[in-house]
Design a protein that fits this description.
By secondary structure, this protein is mainly α. The protein contains three helices and two strands.
Length: 95
């Protein structure tokens, strides 16, 4: 029996009815079984592992890693470019 070809994120997304970005987010969070192609940054998905993952209720394929809580961002300094709202600057003078 010939092994099934590995799926791209776009192919898996189409199969599951989600976006490719969602599939990649799941991969980065360790929520979906995936394969990294040696010697490249490419990620692929084994259809057999995906079917088993779906049968098991989409359980994480590995132990979840919890990230520490994020600190709130500091308020921008008065007068900095991030503190100005779009359209709040004075109109430019025409010559």
């Amino acid at each position: 029996m010939t092994p099934e070809p590995l799926l791209t994120a776009a192919q898996l997304a189409k199969w599951l009815g989600v976006s490719a970005d969602t599939v990649l987010d799941w991969h980065e969070a360790g929520r979906v079984p995936s394969v990294r192609i040696p010697g490249s940054r490419a990620i692929r998905f084994d259809p057999g592992e995906i079917r088993a993952w779906l049968r098991n209720g989409r359980q994480r394929p590995q132990e979840p890693v919890s990230a520490p809580p994020r600190e709130p961002s500091p308020e921008p300094a008065p007068g900095s470019w991030t503190s100005k709202r779009r359209g709040s600057a004075a109109p430019r003078q025409r010559d």
